[in-house]
Amino acid sequence: MESKVLSHGHETTSLLVFQEGDELISTLEKYAFDHDITSGHFEGIGAFKNVVVAFFDWDKKEYIKIPFDEQLEILSFNGDITIEDEIPKIHAHVVCGRKDGSAVGGHLVEGYVRPTLELVLYKSDKHLRRKVDPKTGVHVIDIRSSGD
After folding, report:
1. Is the pLDDT of residue 146 over 70?
2. What is the pTM of this model?
3. CA distance linking residue 19 with residue 84, whole number of Å
4. H/E element holding 35?
5. Which residues are CB-contacts of 12 (< 8 A; sequence separation ≥ 6)?
6. In this structure, which topology does domain 2-145 adopt according to CATH?
7. CB 113, CB 49: distance < 8 Å
8. Cβ atoms 28, 13 nearer than 8 A
9. How do 103-124 and 11-19 pair as beta strands?
10. CA geometry: angle at 95 spanning 112 and 51, to 5°?
């Protein structure tokens, strides 16, 4: 993956260009760790050679993984970066198009880029923290412990 800062200020904007074969979530988490990103949001376009999304089953209180082992165009991709236990965490959702024009999507678990993925990242100078919600087991943003 290559990156370039596009602007600075209270929010820094960067462009990240992922290469074929990059696993998106782990590569983005490493980038966030290496660049001390504790709060941010992103959006992107590109394509995957395969992807695993998940759907939260409310009754079971667990994510059900749904793998797609095929070439998919990314139609919509966005999410945020927060910290949990002082480690950057990615929370992303994606909608992907199949060659027949149908769409699939969900909570992004993992995705392998092919041929590229262009991501615009907005890094805040604040901190956002996650915690586990005891009722659901879901990792949620804790507004009260987030801030400077």
Report:
1. no
2. 0.86
3. 27
4. none
5. 5, 122, 123
6. 60s Ribosomal Protein L30; Chain: A; (3.30.1330)
7. yes
8. no
9. antiparallel
10. 25
